[in-house]
Known about the structure:
Belongs to the group II decarboxylase family. By secondary structure, the chain is of the alpha/beta class. Among the domains are: 201 residues, Aspartate Aminotransferase, domain 2 (3-Layer(aba) Sandwich); 94 residues, Aspartate Aminotransferase, domain 1 (Alpha-Beta Complex), CATH 3.90.1150. The protein contains 17 helices and 14 strands. The longest helix has 29 residues. The protein is globular, with a radius of gyration of 27 Å.
Amino acid sequence: MNKITSTSPTDDPEKVYPRVPGIDYKYFKLSPEGVPEAWRKIALQQLHEYELAQKQHFLGYQTNQKLNFDEELHQYLNYHLNNVGDPFQSGNLTLNSKFIERAVLDYFASLWNAQWPHNNNKNTPYEERKDSYWGYVLTMGASEGNVYALWNARDYLSGKFLMTDAEVEHKAKEASKCGRKVSIEPRTMYYQAIAPECNPNKYTPVAFYSQDTHYSIIKFMRVLNIQTFYEIAVNNKLKCPLEKDDYPDDFSNEYIDEISGWPLEVPSDKDGNIHIPALVKLVDFFAEKGYPPLISFNYGTTFKGAYDRVKDAVEKLVPVFKNRNLYERKVHYDPNDKSKFDVRNGFWIHVDGALGAGYMPFIEMAIKQNKIKLPDGYTFPEFDFRIKELHSLVFSGHKWLGAPWPTGIFMSKVKYQLQPPDDPQYIGSPDTTFAGSRNGFSPIILWNSLSKNSYDSLIEMAVNMEGLAEYAFQEFKKLEQKLGIDLWVERSPLSLTIRFKKPDDHIVFKYSLSEEELYVDGKRRKYCHMYIMGHVTEKLIDEFILELSKPYVIPDQEEQVEQVVKCDIKPNATKLLHVPYIGRGFK
Ligand SMILES: *Cc1c(COP(=O)(O)O)cnc(C)c1O
């Protein structure tokens, strides 16, 4: 034993960790000697068999398993490609793929109707470049894009700015008075504007997002200390302006805090879409009090796959912003010098398009070419940079398009980066992205897929998947008839997911089904959903439905009685945001 310094275990890890079918942990356990070669071979074999089996039945999450990258790209496993820093600046870490990253970003900018190429060249007049896009390829998935967007939104709305420290100049002048010239390096400072007394909430962003929002948004609200409307309302004992009519039909009261009367998040309808009348009323209520609203929409919700009608909502919100003097407002750098200010929007519109931003543009094209029929009464929900009030958009690359690891895209506009107009005093952030090191392999993966497909082939792919989702839905309906039981089967319009009553655990494992609890008509129900992604075939759907048709595979659910929560401690502390345990798809 080469043991120099290392701890011994307090228990056998095999006993304390979850068991995984087909995996003998002893072959994987790492020791100071590594793993004996014969065991390593067994371990790799078990790994392969396990992942292959799970991949073959994969139905429960929105990640495409139809991947074919090894042939052309396998050699890059032996390169460390790092796109650290801004994608539009070369940087010194030259072993990167930023030139491909820029091609991928341009592609999506064009697809999402943004102004491209990115241009923040100081030789171009600001007016011409301010609307050009800025973005980058994410190392995490859309979660990273969400935190980055919310961070930008918070700084933008809360009146933060970056400037050269004016005291440095003063110091240099003072020092120079002694007769010798002193040069002092400029220093970038992060500043916070001061709210005027007449409008104390001017720099306090208030967040609005629906009850179908992905948990990453909620997590980052906490990371960034952004307050939600609920939080501000209960702590200031405000009275909720929503009346019964402002809630969607079929709304379950469990989503309301019965003590304060406020909904915990913005209500959504049973399909999972944010309820626009409630949103508009809530936003107006806070806008009237001077708070700048930060609104996060979903385009493809995690569990129900619903597309918020972003354009319709923004059309209703713009008059509210204008009426409350938030459409454009001055952010003063110095309360005593009214001549120095930046003009900013007093609101931020973010779209979490983790899933939908990838294929819905092709569905829109398919509609225009009469290649797809919309559900009765349904019109295409626009979400992209054609909405001129849109501030940021994110997308996960590994979901619809497919990648071996999480990746994605963040996109915004030059004018929303913290770098005010043509004044040499103002400078942008020297480090524009979220992380330090950035994955340089991911842009190659995205480029590989996009370079092999035309819009026509992507339209065909998107239309086929909609067709398969409808097929699966109809097969479920037939199954319901055959079994004579209500399986709670539902599919939101154009969504790639079908939700249904939770089957037995062995099915949940075999098909990697995501499970979720939802309140329906005041009752708590356990659901699962399946997602149609590129690898899913009619054959896999048929096999799945056949398994569900066997006796006892979909057990009855006892009516779940709400547990009585015993709460001995009542903190004498400020109540912050609601952290949901159900409805968000993180299981
Ligand atoms: C999956 C998902 C995310 C998070 O994306 P990751 O790529 O897993 O980080 C965010 N929002 C929605 C709506 C999602 O479905």
